[in-house]
Amino acid sequence: MINTFFVDNSGLLWVGTTSGLYKLKNRKFLFKKYLLTNDINKATKIRSILQDYKGDIYTINQKTLFKYDSTTKQFNNLNWINNTKSTPYEIKEYNTTNFLVGLQGEGIGIYNKNTNILKPFFADNKNPYTNNVLKICKDQQNILWLGTSNGLDYYNKNKDNLVKKLNSKLNEDDINKDVIFDIKIDVNNQLWVGTNSGLYHLKVDYSTLPLTIKITKIKNILYKIHSILINNNTLWLTTQFNGLVKYNINNQKITDFNESLGLSSNTTFSLLPGIKNELWISTLNGLSRFDTISEQFLNFYDYDGISGNDFRSSSQLKTRKGELLFGGQSGITSFSPSEIEIDTTNFNLNLINVSWYNHLKNTTFNNNKINNYKLPKITIPYNNAFVKFQFALTNYFMPQNNNFKYRLNGLHSDWRVLKETNELSFTYIPPGNYILEVMATTPSGKSNKKTLTQSITVLQVYYKKWWFLTTLATLLGLILFFIRKYELDHINKMEQLRLRISRDLHDELGSLLTGIAMKSDLLLEKVDLKSKKEIFKEISTNCRKSVDTLSDIVWAIDSKNNSLQNLSDRMESFLFQFLSSENIKITFKPLITIKPIQLNQDYRQHVFLIFKEAITNIMKHSNATQVFVSLTKDKNNIILTIKDNGTVFTKNERSLDGNGIINMKLRTKKIKGNIQFYNDNGFVIELLFRYLKQ
């Protein structure tokens, strides 16, 4: 009992009954169906269809020959008398009275339309070398080409009963071993042969007998070819597993059209041209219409009115009126291409769910509350995995067969087909901005007008963002800058060290060595013995001074001596070395610390040279009998005090060894210290400098 019904926007009738919900679709009858069942109520498996010179249409199945009756609009069984006792496969018009019949088992038969008798073609049993004839083709020279299950034969009826087997080979490919499925002749009377191993091109020289035949196997077409259609310089091929193949004869370019592009099945059989630029292809799963300009497919199935989805034979006919007939496993489908609707549909295409797995949080996120009237931008984290988009087309007639194709701009620009699924999945989408475009087609292949466009942003991990990379690059630049600055400073210090060493060697040792040289020259002169002794004594003294000076220089540049303790030891050694021989009492008080105090190398050298200059002045210019030296600490400063009990004191700085006090002041300035000279029951020098290593 019907309780309710309504018609939706697509014209689909929904009927609610006491036993369930039904849907009905109103459609035109575009296809005609013939021979759906045979006499024992089994499906009629059509093998070949032809139209003779009068326009009558014939077809055969595995046993019987049928003729179309234009009055009853049915195919009638002719009940022929089959004297071959063999299964027919192919029928071909031989002359106005007879058909040739390719047989599976007895080569070729000949059928007489007047007597309704099928008998062997060769009365003297000169059948083709292989008795299974699958295809018959007659060329312009009245040569019959016979495609068999074991190669290609030909028969010249002008030279009665001459059957010659092809023995030509190319690249060790023997066409004799191939199963021949189709033979077509182009405008130049050249043959194209489709086999179970590929496509062959035959150039025939008819001036010789037997015929001279050049066989070329087309490279890169290694498919099992069921049918060939020649259109100018283009071959269209139906194949076993590779869909529809386009071969350009001029440039030898090969193009495949398969299920991923909308073809109903990759196993294709018969092939016929339509009324404009379309091709019609029978397949293992329905009938496909292919627009050679737009390269779009439109598919039809049994629920669209064809006799069945499984065609599985190369039986086809285009009548003189332009009607197309395709034979299959369930009879014949007939139609006029001009009556097939190719317009688009206008269903709603919606995004119904977006989900992804966050592998860091071990959670799955679902967003199924999507406003399809105004799609918001979808933001996905960088740690996404198994991202899934689900679509829905509001075509509810066979919705499981709605097809979708998509492209994700920013990741790839080509369109990709989702075959019989409404889910688009990615194992991972890298960070970036994307535009997802989705188009839909109905089960028949009609394109939907409405498309879906969705903006998607996949966030970037922080350490790959521009600001982080910029900061990192800046820090790296600064590090490199300071490393280079350190290297330059080190190079500069080394240069200053070399200059200082050269200056010290020149200033300290230069004058001594010059004096030694001058004294040595005097020895070469005629001087008395007493003078020679004095010169030798001076040379000896200067040599010792040179050694001491060189020792001071080496000590000054050795970084291992940068502690205050080493400086104290050096001062104490110098005091006792030079003042002990002068009978001067020495009092030295070093600075005792728990932790060693490190000094700047330049500071250490300047402090020691100031100390040395002061002690030298005491030796040369003072009548002191006691010398007091101490090192003390005042916060961050070291105080060096040098005091003697001499009575000789002058305010003229230049009177002390010329520039002695001036040199001490200059060195004090270099170490940014402070030096004082005053008289306190003797001459006092007090030097203050920072002890922190700089």
In words, what does this structure look like?
By secondary structure, the chain is of the alpha+beta class. The protein is 19% helix and 38% strand. The chain has 5 helices and 48 strands. A hairpin with a 4-residue loop joins strand 6 (57-60) and strand 7 (65-69). Helix 3 (564-579) runs parallel beside helix 4 (601-621). The longest helix is centred in the last third of the chain and has 58 residues, at 466-523. It is elongated, with a radius of gyration of 55 Å. The protein starts with a strand and ends with a strand.
Which band does the percent of strand residues land in? 35-45%
Number of helices: 5
Q: State the separation between the terminal residues, measured CA to CA.
A: 105 Å
- Across the major sheet, the strand order is 9-13-12-11-10
Oligomer: single chain
Main sheet properties: 5 strands, mixed
Radius of gyration: 55 Å
Give the overall average pLDDT.
Answer: 82
Helix coverage percent: 10-25%
User: What is the total tally of β strands?
Assistant: 48
* Structural classification: alpha+beta
Low-pLDDT stretches: 166-172, 650-657
* Outline type: elongated
